[in-house]
Design a protein that fits this description.
alpha/beta, Rossmann fold, UDP-N-acetylmuramoyl-L-alanine:D-glutamate ligase, 2 domains, eleven-stranded mixed β-sheet, binds ligand NPW, binds adenosine-5'-diphosphate, binds potassium ion
């Protein structure tokens, strides 16, 4: 279920408060890790613990000691020496050395499991080149890796890599979960994340503005009463589909219908065909006519193009008060026309914007790499600047209303194909039409979109070739299984 994510500064504050009260956090962290490893790896494992110069290394020494006592073959390799260890880590090292193990400086060739205790949340600059070389060798060798707290080299707040990262199969993270484990490079680097709160009292945790979003429940707004009709579930207007891009608008419209909108009309900028032969339930019209009809929710952007007609349509829709989802070229137009940007910001009704990182970068007048380096900050800034609910797509899609930020837990790289964004826009519009708030519809829509791809992955392990239309069918199945 949805749970809080803490930034480095928040965790450091919690830790120092608890340490001041005498809680043996490092001992608890290392012991919890050793127990977990003891339950998941055979006693025949040959374990090498890579330790670093800070408290993360201290966790590694504690973990090594308990695994050794439990009967594993354990080596500890201090890969980096910076200065004197802090008190707790120094004590952990002393207790390890008292067991009398052989001192090593290199990775024993019979190693079957690497425990990464090099850097934790104290990483503050690029990984040194000699350590990076070791990380690359281990990554390339495909050894099992369990990271303590966070994979070394990964930024705990942003999910960016500081030069090089030691990729893990599992990350055993302590005290609180971290955003960097779930967005940008986080999911690839961390593998499966297991949280150990180390028995801290609930009062130790501040209210967290950031969360990891996941749900198994059908939102209350989507529970259907017998006494309802198609009007109950709203009419969505999708505007886009300029010449050569008709498919984008059709995909979005189909997604909106499959996700429960009562009626969907697609206003095409290119000459509209009479009907969609695969989904004749859709209404097709010319965009100029469609925008004059009443709709409960608008989605504008899929295949919109950027010509004068597109600008006129967008200007009209921005002036309406119904909930409005802006995607693709609608966002590119906002980025290049300051009057449209200002009009969007001043809207009375709810606005949802759904950029991928490059579109977000255009809106923020930044490089895409800068957006990706700080996805949480970027999404909050977008939401704030446009007075909207914003998301930034990609691995660990981030969603914000300008105050709180959530990271989506579902989804996989099968979604990296054309049309998946169009489908997402249609899904969010359908959820808005059924009465969900802008933030809820966006968080839930993104979750469902990812969960659909996850369901498909179960029988298509390599994750290659998922079509956007197939995602819609899976999303409908996932949705209808929620209770
Ligand atoms: N606080 C607690 O009580 C608890 C903490 N816990 C654990 O401790 C972890 C945080 O510990 P931490 O703050 O000591 O930081 P950590 O990640 O070990 O690294 C800092 C060291 O690395 C160095 N360094 C940094 N970057 C570097 C680079 N690129 N290249 C080279 N050196 C670099 C840095 O050097 P400096 O900047 O001081 O020169 C410093 O020596 C946390 O993730 C969790 O695992 C748990 O046990 C629970 C209780
Ligand atoms: N590696 C990934 N993990 C999770 N989701 C992904 C990944 N790659 C792409 N997606 C999702 O797929 C969708 C792609 O959208 P977009 O880039 O707008 O595609 P298009 O414009 O072709 O429709 C987004 O919702 C994005 O979050
Ligand atoms: K680590």
């Amino acid at each position: 279920m949805t749970h809080p994510l803490y930034l480095r500064a928040e965790l450091q504050k919690i830790e120092s408060q608890q340490l001041a009260q005498g809680l043996p956090l490092m001992e608890r962290a290392g012991t919890a890790a050793a127990r977990w490893i003891g339950g998941h790896y055979p006693r025949s494992s040959v374990i090498t613990v890579l330790v670093g110069p800070g408290n993360n290394g201290g966790d590694g020494y504690v973990c090594a000691r308990h695994l050794y006592i439990a009967g594993f073959t354990v080596h500890v390799w201090p890969v980096l020496h910076v200065g004197d260890l802090a008190a707790d880590a120094s004590q952990a090292r002393r207790l390890w050395l008292e067991l009398g193990p052989e001192r090593i400086a290199g990775l024993p060739s019979d190693t079957t499991l690497v425990i990464d205790a090099v850097f934790g949340i104290g990483l503050n600059r690029p990984v040194p080149e000699d350590v990076a070389t070791t990380f690359r060798q281990i990554n390339d060798a495909g050894l099992n890796v369990v990271a303590l707290d966070i994979p070394s080299g990964l930024d705990a707040d942003s999910g960016q890599i500081h030069g090089c990262v030691l990729s893990a199969n599992h990350t055993l993270t302590f005290i609180g979960d971290k955003p960097g484990l779930h967005t940008a490079h986080g999911q690839d680097a961390a593998g499966e994340v297991v949280l150990f709160e180390l028995d801290l009292p609930a009062a130790a945790y501040p209210a967290a503005p950031n969360t990891l979003y996941e749900t198994t429940r059908l939102p209350a707004q989507l529970r259907r009463h017998q006494e309802s009709n198609k009007g109950t579930f709203g009419t969505v207007g999708v505007i886009g589909g300029a010449a050569g891009m008709a498919g984008a608008a059709i995909l979005a419209g189909r997604a909106a219908l499959r996700l429960g909108a009562g009626k969907v009309r697609i206003g095409m900028l290119a000459a509209a065909t009479a009907y969609d032969p695969l989904m004749p339930e859709l209404m097709l019209a010319d965009a100029a006519l469609a925008i004059k009809q009443p709709h409960d929710v608008w989605l504008v952007g899929p295949g919109l193009g950027r010509d004068d007609t597109a600008i006129d349509v967008l200007t009209t829709l921005l002036s309406r008060s119904e909930p409005l989802v802006l995607d693709a070229d609608a966002l590119n137009l906002l980025a290049t026309h300051s009057a449209l940007f200002a009009q969007c910001k001043a809207r009375q009704g709810d606005t949802v914007i759904t950029p991928h990182p490059a579109e977000a970068a255009r809106l923020l007048n930044k490089e895409t790499s800068a957006v990706q380096a700080q996805r949480l900050d970027a999404v909050r800034e977008l939401a704030f600047r446009l007075n909207a609910v914003a998301l930034i797509k990609g691995s660990g899609t981030v969603v914000s209303d300008g105050l709180q930020i959530s990271i989506n837990q579902s989804g996989n790289a099968a979604l990296a194909s054309a049309g998946q964004g169009d489908v997402l826009g249609g899904m969010i519009a359908a959820l808005l039409a059924q009465g969900m708030s802008a933030l809820e519809a966006t968080q839930f829509g993104v979750y469902l979109h990812g969960a659909a791809a996850d369901q498909w992955l179960q029988s298509n392990a390599a994750g290659i070739g998922l079509g956007a239309s197939e995602t819609v069918e899976h999303a409908r199945t996932v949705l209808n299984r929620l209770k």
